[in-house]
Write a structure and sequence with these properties.
Number of helices: 9
CATH architecture: 3-Layer(aba) Sandwich
Distance between the termini: 51 Å
Strand order of the largest sheet: 5-4-3-6-7-9-12
CATH superfamily: NAD(P)-binding Rossmann-like Domain
Helix content: 25-40%
Largest sheet: 7 strands, parallel
CATH class: Alpha Beta
Order of helices and strands: EEEHEHEHEHEEHEEEHEHEHH
CATH topology: Rossmann fold
Number of domains: 1
Number of strands: 13
């Protein structure tokens, strides 16, 4: 926006970026902290008074959701947002934000960018083969099927209204406070041999910020590392760092890997968003932590 002062000089005011984060969980909160340090205005939702007070103490405008669903302040913040992140888990009807605020969102005059955080779980079992964003959705898992519905909702308003949305399918997340995911059987309790993709928090934030720059709406991106590993492989790496300075695990490193699940490709993120991973695999992270 350009404004003339009393002396006729032109002053240029940079428009403040305003992020509204539906769901300030692990990813939403850390992305918000990162953008707050870059002078963004941040507001978002949480589900408890304790979390709300904590967020407000850190400089965020926090609102309870769904408790304050008819709150005029919530509606105002959504309408003023230049960027919106949707990271609330879906229910049986899809994304609760879509179902409550679709009309307000599509009528926004301020919104320049939006993203929905989904999961690579939507691919389902591909017999341990590689999958990309064009692969078939084979999941039979109830939670993942809800993600499929939510994705279709957001893509539908891109197709109808050119709503500036993109979908990010995240793999299992690790990073500060989440290191246990590397070796736990959170997703695959019946086997430690199934290959699983993971992704570090640092790279999630980096990829989301890259997408803000490129604005490739209507697209789906896998947000995942480059080397899917089984729990057994990661335990092997962790226990052998003293003997090996560099360990590269090939697909046939363990001959008895179970032929289930899938290996998720991140080639689209690297080529289309021009993103270089800080942690292309969790071995690099483990090495940094233990050496």
């Amino acid at each position: 926006m350009i404004k003339l002062d009393l002396n006729g000089f032109i002053k240029v005011f940079k428009m403040t970026n305003k992020l509204f984060c539906f769901g300030m969980g692990y990813v939403g909160y850390n992305l918000s902290k990162n953008l707050l340090s870059e002078s963004w205005e941040i507001s978002g939702t949480c589900t408890s008074e304790i979390k709300k007070n904590k967020l407000q103490g850190e400089g965020f405008d926090a609102i309870l959701f769904p408790n304050d669903i008819n709150n005029n302040h919530l509606i105002k913040k959504i309408s003023e947002a230049t960027h919106i992140l949707f990271s609330i888990p879906p229910d049986d009807l899809g994304d609760p934000v879509f179902n409550k605020f679709c009309k307000i969102l599509t009528e926004s005059q301020s919104l320049k960018w939006a993203a929905y955080l989904s999961s690579t779980g939507v691919y389902g079992n591909h017999s341990n083969l590689w999958v990309n964003e064009e692969s078939k959705i084979l999941t039979t898992n109830e939670k993942s099927l809800r993600r499929v519905v939510a994705e279709s909702q957001w893509i539908s308003i891109f197709n109808r209204n050119k709503f500036p949305i993109q979908i990010f399918r995240l793999s299992g997340i690790y990073g500060p406070g989440r290191d246990n995911f590397l070796t736990s059987d959170i997703s695959y309790r019946n086997s430690r041999k199934i290959k699983i993709n993971r992704v570090h928090l640092f790279d999630i934030i980096g990829i989301i910020k890259s997408s803000i720059k490129y604005k490739l709406f209507g697209e789906i991106f896998n947000v995942t590392d480059s080397l899917p590993l089984s729990r057994e492989e990661i335990l092997f790496v962790s226990s052998n760092l003293n003997s090996y300075k560099k360990i590269i695990l090939e697909d046939n490193f363990f001959n008895d890997i179970i032929n289930e699940g899938k290996k998720v490709s991140n080639e689209k993120v690297k080529s289309v968003l021009n993103y270089s991973y800080r942690y292309p695999d969790c071995i690099k992270y483990i090495t940094e932590k233990l050496e």
